[in-house]
């Protein structure tokens, strides 16, 4: 009798253990299926379109969308994402309990009620691993200084390499960027087309260790092309093969103007401090990162005026699936 009870107990543990694994696989599979079927939602653009013509709401409703936004408030059944142009994301209550105002989250859910109180129904919050495995992220906004405020949009991504091939900027610098890469996925050309300034092309060459060897500029406007600056770079590395010092020389300037950059790292090999020194000044830039190693904050100051700091905040969003 004793052995019979033991055998039944072991059988129950085995059955429930397998069932738990199957449920976990099923849940993961269901989320992946939702991601496969969903589109990436640019809610500001969609909301603007619907406000201009409510008849177009039906083109967007009752479809699955992936949406990244900041938590504004947490209610009993949903979280309100953003303050302006907000959406209510209806999540599992246990998930809602883990949220805090200000969190940046990514959800996938069904969009409804776009002309009244927009909602993402039956929404699921995606974890960091899923986001890293399934999506490509990029900067969408830079803010904090009127001289540097920028928005980034209309990203195009190569489906095979997952590299960004073009994007648009507005603000401190406006234009369309068209990018080219070498076989090692190093950026070798950034062509910036602007209605105001014409076309600026920045080209890069690389050393065997994939550090930038040279950086050159050319500008074309009204059919005339002018060569800009050309910089050459040399490096020093630490015992972990990380660049700790970079020296840039402007070979096109009469005095061979020189810039020196030094770097400090965190335990994830992210640069957390950069010092830029020129013959006339020295600046320090401190960097902060999110869970995806995206550079979300830049705090800079002149070493002669450490009390006068400029803070730039970078916002990132999902721009494509992998």
Brief write-up:
The chain has 4 helices and 20 strands.
Can you give a write-up of this model?
- By secondary structure, the protein is an alpha+beta fold.
- It contains four helices and 20 strands.
- It has two domains: 88 residues, OB fold (Dihydrolipoamide Acetyltransferase, E2P); 188 residues, Porin (Beta Barrel).
- Strand 5 and strand 6 form a beta hairpin.
- The N terminus is likely disordered.
How would you state the average pLDDT, rounded? 91
Radius of gyration: 25 Å
Number of DSSP-assigned strands: 20
Q: Uncertain runs with pLDDT below 50, 5 residues or more? A: 2-6, 8-26
Under CATH, the topology of the largest domain is which? Porin
Q: Which CATH first-tier class of the largest domain would you pick? A: Mainly Beta
Global structural class? alpha+beta
Fraction of residues in H or I helices: 10-25%
SSE succession: HEHEEEHEEHEEEEEEEEEEEEEE
- Gross geometry: globular
User: What would CATH call the architecture of the largest domain?
Assistant: Beta Barrel
Distance between the termini: 56 Å
Number of helices: 4
How much of the polypeptide forms β-strand, as a percent range? Answer: over 45%
- Strands of the biggest beta sheet: in what spatial order? 7-8-9-10-11-12-13-14-15-16-17-18-19-20
Summarize the biggest pleated sheet.
14 strands, antiparallel, barrel
Number of domains: 2
């Amino acid at each position: 009798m004793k052995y019979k009870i033991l055998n039944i107990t072991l059988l129950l543990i085995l059955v429930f253990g397998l069932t738990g694994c199957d449920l976990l696989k099923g849940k993961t599979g269901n989320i992946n299926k939702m991601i496969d079927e969903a589109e990436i939602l640019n809610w500001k653009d969609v909301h603007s379109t619907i406000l201009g013509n409510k008849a177009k709401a039906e083109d967007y409703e009752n479809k699955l969308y992936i949406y990244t936004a900041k938590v504004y408030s947490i209610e009993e059944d949903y979280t309100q994402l953003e303050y302006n142009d907000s959406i209510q994301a209806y999540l599992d209550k246990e998930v809602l309990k883990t949220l805090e105002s200000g969190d940046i989250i990514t959800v996938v859910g069904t969009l409804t009620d776009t002309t009244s109180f927009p909602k993402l129904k039956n929404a699921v919050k995606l974890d960091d691993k899923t986001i890293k495995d399934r999506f490509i992220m990029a900067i969408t906004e830079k803010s904090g200084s009127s001289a540097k405020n920028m928005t980034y949009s209309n990203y195009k991504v190569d489906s095979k390499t997952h590299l960004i091939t073009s994007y648009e900027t507005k603000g401190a610098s406006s234009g369309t960027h068209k990018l080219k890469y070498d076989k090692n996925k190093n950026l070798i050309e950034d062509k910036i087309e602007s209605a105001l300034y014409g076309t600026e092309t920045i080209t890069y060459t690389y050393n065997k260790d994939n550090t930038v060897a040279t950086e050159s500029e050319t500008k074309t406007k009204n059919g005339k092309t002018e060569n800009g600056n050309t910089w050459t770079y040399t490096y020093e590395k630490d015992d972990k093969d990380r660049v700790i010092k970079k020296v840039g020389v402007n070979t096109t300037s009469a005095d061979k103007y020189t810039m020196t950059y030094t770097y400090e790292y965190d335990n994830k090999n992210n640069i957390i401090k950069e010092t830029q020194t020129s013959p006339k000044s020295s600046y320090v830039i401190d960097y902060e990162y999110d869970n995806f190693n995206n550079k979300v904050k830049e705090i800079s100051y002149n070493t002669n005026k450490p009390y006068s700091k400029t803070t730039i905040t970078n916002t990132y969003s999902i721009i494509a699936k992998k």
